[in-house]
């Protein structure tokens, strides 16, 4: 049987190299502890400066809704320049940004070290932090981003039944819309009463202690994530089995809090810092004990690799964790390079629509998931590098759901035309959002579940 084929867009040459820009981007630490960070006068000055540069550039117009909103505000203003836009309308641009980071990492030629020093996502983050501090974020959005609390409650068996039934009931979805601002048609994930920690039976020490290869130590402590714990425990089980099948020792991090990404997207930096206080000592302990770290959700890996280090640039624990946390497919491809990946796949996967999520692309690790899936014989891959539009609460909330579906539309059209057997993305929310846009005519799966299926284990 022939080795898997990639059907369309080729990987960026150089594996994950930036798509635009003049040199390797550098990023400034986030000055979130200073009072000046929350001062609206310098914030508005910087917003005006950057909005003006973006208006002259327009390169990001198709990435999300923030840029079309910005350009319309300017083009329809009295002066047709940024000085003609009412300052209070500046927030309309901020409200459409979900911090996917694509405009910084893959598009903008003016990021530092360029003298224009444009960091659009972190300017949006600062504006969101000001909004949050000013009490302008509603209770419903604060509640929705308490992913661990919601997951913990929803996994109590009798509650699980009720929550999942409510999700399926159009009448109850209207109630949920009024209470929490969740659009009645948005895809809401299923909850499970047996969490990943209940379900995954990991016996450490059953394998010979890890064999190092390249940057990997062959021993993985898994940061399960809120979504992995309560919404996709089966995927966590699949990941553990694939790792162990490849002679990688695995344990679950026993006690964890949310990585903080949902709170970051809200501008609630104090909560991000609180979660960091909980998670970092535990993760650092595992690193000191010789384990590598991994999380099954790209956004959570990105938090430990990028956002928390930029918030705490001098924290030794944070830097040690940053250096040791991996994306699952990045890890497996390191093992493959050393000849340690079992490529004896037994089942072809057919035709896949594989979506590379934004928060994985911006890690600059290259399309490792696609590369591994390509090793599976009898597998064809429709490779999609485009934002799905889901991005946390953006695809859920009543006021942004229509935009989220609009952003997903080109992907949905392409996947429909490709007539695939599976829709897959490392971001399970993105895969569900795309499948939802297709009317759930195709199953959405995590790629690690497909790898397990291909192994027949
Ligand atoms: S970070 Fe993403 S959502 Fe925000 S402005 Fe940039 S491309 Fe748009
Ligand atoms: S973020 Fe950069 S690339 Fe995008 S529109 Fe603004 S200046 Fe242009």
TrEMBL record:
Region (Disordered): 1-27
The keyword Metal-binding is annotated on this UniProt entry: yes
Source organism of the structure: Panacagrimonas perspica
Alphabetized Pfam families for the sequence: CCG
Taxonomic lineage of the native organism: Bacteria, Pseudomonadati, Pseudomonadota, Gammaproteobacteria, Nevskiales
GO molecular function terms attached to this record: 4 iron, 4 sulfur cluster binding; metal ion binding; oxidoreductase activity
SUPFAM superfamilies listed in its UniProt record: 4Fe-4S ferredoxins (SSF54862)
Entry protein name: Fe-S oxidoreductase
Residue ranges constituting the 4Fe-4S ferredoxin-type domain according to the UniProt record: 45-76
InterPro entries, sorted: 4Fe4S_Fe-S-bd, Cys_rich_dom
Keywords: 4Fe-4S, Iron, Iron-sulfur, Metal-binding, Repeat
């Amino acid at each position: 049987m022939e080795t898997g084929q990639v059907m369309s867009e080729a990987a960026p040459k150089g594996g994950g190299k930036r798509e635009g820009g003049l040199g390797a981007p550098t990023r400034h630490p986030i000055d979130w502890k200073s009072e000046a960070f929350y001062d609206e006068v310098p914030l508005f000055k910087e917003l005006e400066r950057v909005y003006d540069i973006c208006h002259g550039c327009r390169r990001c117009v198709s990435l999300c809704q923030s840029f079309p909103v910005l350009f319309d505000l300017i083009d329809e203003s009295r002066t047709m320049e940024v000085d003609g836009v009412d300052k209070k309308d500046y927030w309309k641009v901020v409200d459409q940004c979900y911090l996917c980071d694509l405009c910084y990492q893959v598009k903008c030629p003016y990021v530092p070290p360029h003298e224009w020093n444009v960091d659009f996502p972190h300017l949006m983050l600062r504006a969101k932090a000001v909004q949050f501090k000013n009490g302008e974020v509603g209770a419903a959005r604060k509640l929705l981003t308490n992913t661990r609390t919601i997951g913990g409650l929803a996994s109590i068996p009798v509650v699980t039944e009720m929550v999942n039934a409510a999700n399926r009931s159009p009448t109850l979805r209207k109630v949920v819309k009024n209470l929490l601002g969740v659009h009645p048609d948005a895809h809401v994930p299923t909850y499970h009463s047996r969490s990943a920690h209940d379900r995954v039976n990991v016996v450490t020490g059953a394998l010979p202690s890890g064999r190092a290869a390249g940057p990997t130590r062959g021993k993985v402590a898994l940061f399960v994530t809120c979504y992995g714990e309560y919404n996709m425990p089966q995927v966590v089980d699949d990941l553990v089995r694939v790792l162990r099948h490849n002679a990688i020792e695995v344990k679950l991090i026993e006690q964890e809090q949310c990585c903080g990404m949902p709170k970051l997207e809200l501008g609630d930096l104090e909560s991000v810092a609180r979660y960091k206080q909980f998670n970092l000592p535990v993760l650092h302990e595992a690193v000191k004990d010789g384990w590598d770290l991994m999380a099954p959700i790209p956004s959570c890996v990105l938090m430990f690799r990028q956002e928390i280090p930029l918030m705490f640039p001098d924290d030794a624990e944070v830097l040690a964790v940053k250096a040791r946390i991996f994306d699952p497919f990045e890890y497996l491809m390191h093992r493959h390079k050393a000849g340690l990946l079992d490529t004896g796949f037994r089942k072809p996967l057919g035709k896949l629509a594989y979506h590379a999520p934004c928060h994985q692309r911006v890690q600059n690790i290259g399309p490792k998931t696609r590369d591994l899936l390509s090793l599976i014989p009898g597998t064809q891959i429709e490779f999609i590098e485009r934002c799905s539009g889901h991005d946390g609460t953006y695809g859920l909330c009543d006021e942004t759901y229509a935009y989220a579906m609009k952003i997903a539309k080109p992907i949905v059209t392409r996947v429909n035309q490709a007539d695939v057997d599976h829709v897959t993305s490392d971001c399970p929310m993105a895969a569900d959002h795309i499948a939802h846009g297709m009317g759930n005519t195709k199953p959405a799966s995590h790629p690690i579940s497909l790898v397990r299926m291909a192994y027949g284990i």
